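User: I want to check something. If I give you two sequences, will you return the structure for each one separately, not as a complex?

Assistant: Yes, each is folded on its own. Here is the first sequence with its structure:
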Amino acid sequence: MSDQAMTREDKLRFERAPCYLCGYNSHDYYQPNVHPCAKLYHMPEDTVESLREELAQMKQERDGWHRDATSHLMALCEKQAEVNALEAKISELGGQP
């Protein structure tokens, strides 16, 4: 399902089943709990726009967390490589790591 608000033309298209978004053509066509595209039909544009803004903010936060996680994972891998090198050196000298 698209996250775009329905324009006036889209709403007119939606009123002629089957659904132009997903092809749904059964009972409770206008009920969002049965046909999720109907949620967009009933939703005012300002609500859709505020949801888009919230989604954009959530994506920015997610991307920030992803960058942080990637940075931490790279640091962990580097530290593990140092640990492995020290353990190998200890083993070469006949000791137990």
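And separately, the second sequence with its own structure:
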Amino acid sequence: MDWVSSDRLVKHNAKYARDYWAVTVNPSWLGGSLRRLVSVLRRRAQVEKCFKMSPRDPQFENIPHLAGLLRDLRDDCGGDRAFDVSQVISSGQK
């Protein structure tokens, strides 16, 4: 959140034995904040209207460089490459 540019004024009224407070906010700050607020609300409405869950689960194959990292992890743990190759051949993938 941005700092609010403002002034504070305190007056004491002796007749009523009461303090009166006033806070003055810089109008230039207020205008920018209102624009940001309206933008956020508009974007939230767009997301609620247009967002829908994908019928497919995310696929790790679509994440850049993840397949290589998984292969390295498998090899470091002593994984079986021959088993992986047989699974790819039986599923028809290349």
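Because they were folded independently, the notes below concern the second chain alone. The chain has a mean pLDDT of 77. Residues 23 and 64 are 53 Å apart (CA to CA).
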